[in-house]
Design brief:
With 98 residues, this protein is mainly beta. It is 8% helix and 29% strand.
Length: 98
Amino acid sequence: MEYRLGNSLRVKSRGETVELTCPHCNKDVKFGVFSNFERRLAPKITLLDCNTVYFLVCPECTSIYTVDEAKGDSFKKGEKLSIGNFDLKTLKEFKEKI
């Protein structure tokens, strides 16, 4: 099983969330937030899929979740409350486009 965490191999730490409940282990934890893409070379070209993928890791059970790009961008700008319990989504399995 392969998961795509975005377009870049570099992963940057973005900090920790406020205390949230992990959907997998049901513990109240501060998720570590990471992102993989920070520059957009050609934002107006629709042929390129340039998305920043934000993913959160539970420190207790190591489950990985993602949030919408807009929520992650707000978090990156310092809005700690932009990510809540209902924003966590599971990562989808990557299927290569042929």
